[in-house]
Design a protein that fits this description.
It is built from 5 helices and 21 strands. The chain is α+β, with helices and mostly antiparallel strands. It folds into 3 domains: 42 residues; 160 residues, Jelly Rolls (Sandwich); 120 residues, no CATH class.
Length: 333
């Protein structure tokens, strides 16, 4: 029913005209607000950042920022030939990533025009370096003999936990559970006596890597187990529940771009990477690698993940919303 007070209130011509203008404006504003909210839901953007001047700040939403996969930073100093990697985590799919690097005022180099950035998508832990499985034979045997071996999913009370390294690590939300690639049917209830064996571990969030004992199963039926930031190929006859599904194509499919100077600022360089070919890759982590043409000193990294307004993305967004609404249903026993 249209909002109309004129049925009960008598207005003169001048006031009636003003009223109609205000009424039309109200309808128009409501329509524009609704259209904006719908577009934000169907075509969202997400922003990520990292400050080298305050690398431990909670506002840093880019994770695993390090040099040459060493896990270490040099206060923003990156030499020619070194690889600066970082990760943006999101369960959504996107069409493009806009990357921006900001040079520190102390940086002697001011030219980054030939520097390049690339991105792949998967789970961060799946990209751990390969190692010799014989190194952890005892660990694998011990894990297989336990009811709740490392990497198991356990439900206790109102929470779901991942068992790893003698700890029960709580998962913070159903969204994170799904984003980590877990399946509700693989969750096993644990009683109070069993649960008391484990200490409470750190909270697993959307930004977390998979803990020790996680098994990844590829689309070619290879299985890998992760331990201490390494990945080990498992025997073909290894059986497990709660394996996280991945694709070996994650190693092959990537997107890249070359940095260009942002002429609106003095020390910023950016580029845009197409992500369409990565949309169907399983995983929540967009992992970026960057190599620079000069020795530089960085102040900050900014990443925007965007979903273009296209008809195909509209259909994908609707299907994804329906899928996530079903996946986020938490079954009760």
């Amino acid at each position: 029913m249209w909002f109309d007070l004129t049925k009960k209130v008598s207005l003169n011509k001048r006031d009636l005209k003003s009223y109609k203008v205000l009424q039309t404006s109200l309808y128009g504003l409501s329509f524009l607000t609704a259209a904006y909210l719908i577009s934000m839901i169907l075509f969202p953007s997400q922003f990520f950042e990292f400050s080298f001047n305050n690398s431990s700040a909670k506002s840093n939403t880019l994770t695993a920022v390090n040099i040459n996969d060493s896990g270490k930073l040099k206060n923003g100093a990156v030499a020619v030939g070194e690889n600066l990697s970082f990760t943006a985590s999101s369960p959504s799919f996107f069409s493009k990533a806009v990357i921006q690097f900001e040079l520190d005022k102390k940086s002697k180099a001011t030219d980054m025009d030939t520097s390049k950035v690339s991105v792949r998508k998967a789970y961060r832990s799946f990209f751990y370096p390969d190692a010799d499985p014989t190194e952890i034979e005892n660990y694998i045997q011990a894990r297989s003999s336990q009811i709740f071996g490392d990497g198991s999913l356990a439900s206790y009370g109102d929470s779901i936990y991942v068992i790893s390294d003698g700890q029960a690590m709580p998962i913070d939300s159903p969204e994170t559970f799904i984003a980590l690639g877990y399946d509700w049917k693989n969750v096993m209830p644990i009683d109070a006596d069993q649960f008391a064996i484990y200490t409470k571990g750190s909270l697993l969030t959307l930004y977390s890597a998979h803990p020790n004992g996680t098994v990844f199963q590829t689309d070619t039926d290879k299985k890998y187990i992760v331990k201490d930031a390494k990945k080990y190929l498992l025997p073909a006859d290894f059986t497990t529940i709660a394996a996280v599904r991945v694709s070996e194509k994650s190693f092959e499919i990537a997107a890249g771009c070359q940095l260009q100077k942002n002429w609106l600022t003095l020390r910023k360089y950016d580029c845009s990477l197409p992500l369409d070919q990565l949309q169907n890759m399983p995983g929540k982590d967009y992992m970026f690698d960057s190599k620079f043409s000069n020795d530089i000193q960085l102040q900050a990294i900014n990443v925007e993940l965007k979903r273009d307004m296209t008809f195909s993305n509209f259909n994908l967004s609707l299907n994804n919303l329906l899928k996530r609404s079903k996946e986020n249903y938490v079954p009760t026993n």
